[in-house]
Amino acid sequence: MDIRQLEVFAKVFENQSFSRAAQELGLSQPTVSTHIQHLEDFLGKKLFDRVGRKVIPTAEAKILYRHAVEILKKREEALASLLSLNGTRMSGTVKIAASNIPGDYLIPHALKKLKELLPEVTFSVEIVDSSRVVTLLKESIPSYDLGFVGMEVEDPKLETRKILRDEITLIAHPEFERDEIELEELLNLPLLLREEESGTRKSIESSLKKVGIGPTELNVVAVLGSNTAIKEAVKTGAGFGLVSKYSVSDEVECGKLKLVKIKGFSIERCFFAVKRRDITPLPSVRTLWERIEELFSLKSGAC
Under DSSP, is residue 181 helix (H, G, I), strand (E, B) or coil? Predict the structure, then answer.
């Protein structure tokens, strides 16, 4: 039994899928199956039952998983401690899971500062919705060092820092004649929104709830998986969008989209950086975390 087998086993256990574990580990599915088979042979115990397409952990697997998590955690702590010795050059890869706006706009704009701070570090960014970012960081053996989300996170496992204030704005086709509408009129507009698990959607629904408007009162004509998709649809005249101001500044300046104010109503939120509390970070991650507010500069005001 070796550390790699335990790592593969833990991923299969968490995903209850050989294919998803293979994808997260960057391995082929046959390789994952071979690791599990060798581990089962060594232990003389069956670890997973296959029921249709599902992979169900056995009682033995549940016991092994608890110990595997501790072993893998100790490995990461040992590596971090060794690398933090004086004189160690900070290199390697910082893996980041980010929601749409941080991944598409905030991190790219901060990349020059990031490289100046950590010139020998490579930054790897995966873009998923905010809820998925939180899920990935809460895995017993997280594949990501940091997360960036567009919603507040309250979880004892995670530490958060506010990095930037945002406003979610109503956008229209440039031929829309009005610059401002009443809040009641919003309910009748054909709206193009992000999916329910996105930080943008959660912020919209939370702000509307404060003024007594429920999500079912909106006229949602399409749910799209990215701000880019919403912008492109609005450009065709398919409807109106509610998106982060950071995602539309260029299009508004060029006259391809129009901002429409909602009288007496605004949707504001903050973006947050997130990391695990219980895992000793690599020196590069610790350095980045300590300078996170400066790197993303609160140019729009503190949250």
Answer: strand
